[in-house]
Amino acid sequence: MRLFLAFVITVCNVGFIGCKVSSKCPSGQFMLKNQCVLCHPTCSECNGHELFECTTCGVDEDGQERFLNQFRCRTHCPRGLYPDRAHYACLPCIPNCELCTDGNICAKCREQYKLQNGICQLVTCDMGQVQDPDTGECINCEVGCKTCSTENPEICSSCVQGFFLFRHQCRRHCPQSTYEDWGRGVCLPCPVPCTDCRSNTRCFACQPGYFLNGGACIKQCPQQTFSNSTGWRCQPCHRSCQTCHGPRSTDCNLCLNGNAPLHGQCPMVNCPLGQYYDGKNSLCHSCDASCKTCFGPQALDCSSCFKGQFLDQEGSCVSQCPSGSFANSATLLCEECSPNCESCVDNSDNCISCSKSSNKPFSPPGALLEKLPRWLL
Questions:
Q1: Model pLDDT for residues 303-361, shown as the tens digit of each residue
Q2: DSSP β-bridge partners for residue 354
Q3: DSSP codes, 216-277
Q4: Residue 87 and residue 44: Cα distance in Å, rounded?
Q5: Is the same domain home to 69 and 149?
């Protein structure tokens, strides 16, 4: 008898249809310690007094229909089940059906399934499509989208090849201050201080105060380049320059050989002694016979003289320095006298005559003082 009772209770627990164990208690009650006890008010029949111990359901005392599901008598069946009024139980819809009115007709299939010929079939939308959660139909995402939101097909989550995701939109080209990451198909921000770039290591434009050099934004241009403030770029110096200042690439500060530039430019050819470089024709020409060396652009533009000659302020080699200068035997240059001297010897302050504008008394050399009459002294 005990084995039969256990078998009946097990069958009741597993199934959906109401059943009851044979007892002497009337409907709506159950046996507890040889006494009949009332079931929970929602149950028609039960095997305990709790609301989750129902075995059959029906119309309760308030006239409300109730349906058995997992040992509870519910007013509504969960999704995927329908209310069977013949047995007052929740029975399953057809497979993959979410809402139904009976076991044969489905009103709405589960997500990713579509009702076709009365059956819920798995929906496989094409790339660039998404399933409409209301109709189950495949609808197109926004142009360029590979995948998009089911709630709004204009909101992209990934892009097809050739498009890049930027702020939930797929674009053919990334906007300024971003660059195209082809591997991930997204637009990424340029690194600071770039304002436009092709990658995270190659800038096109920089923030004010920075100069573009080789795809990088730097504060100061390196050697053999000069900063072009109009374009905020580091421009290369001419290949003859070690350093340059612009605005032209040939405006050198220092030549590669360490020499100072001639006329702001460094000659590409080192001409032999006694010749100068003609930058216009890229040729070496002989200096004038009076010059030991010259720098051009004319043959008479001497830079040093032969012994016994001195280089004057005009770049000519002379045997006697012009008025207002003296011959410096150490440098072989004609150097200017001091401003008060009209002429001087040996150094700039050793005057032998004064300028007309000077009120300074004339002080002749000691050799001349001895020859002057005493009444002049």
A1: 788 988 998 888 889 999 988 899 988 888 899 898 888 889 888 888 888 877 655 44
A2: 341
A3: EEESS--TTEEEETTTTEEEEPPTTEEEE-SSSTT-EEEETTSPPPBTTB--SS-PPTTEEE
A4: 12
A5: no
The predicted-structure confidence for 257-286, as pLDDT tens digits, reads as follows 677 776 566 766 677 888 887 777 778 889
CA 73 to chain CA centroid, Å, is 62
Distance CA 71, CA 53 (A): 5
User: Model's pTM, two decimal places?
Assistant: 0.43
Contact, 252 vs 242, CB < 8 A?
yes
Vertex 327: Cα angle to 324 and 328 (nearest 5): 125
Q: Which runs of consecutive H residues, i.e. helices, occur in the chain? A: 2-14, 366-371
CA distances to 220, 251, 296 from 283, in Å: 36, 20, 11
Select from 78, 21, 76 the least CA-distant residue to 53.
21
- Domain of residue 85, residue span: 29-120
Q: Does 45 map to a domain?
A: yes
Q: What angle do CA 129, 134, 139 make, to 5 degrees?
A: 20
- What type of residue sits at position 311? L
> Nearest 5 degrees, angle CA 235-CA 240-CA 244?
45
Q: Which two tokens stand for residue 267?
A: 């000659």
Is 290 part of any domain? no
Our measurement of the distance from residue 350's CA atom to the centroid of its chain's CA atoms, rounded to an integer in Å, reads 70
CA dist 90 and 79 (Å) reads 10
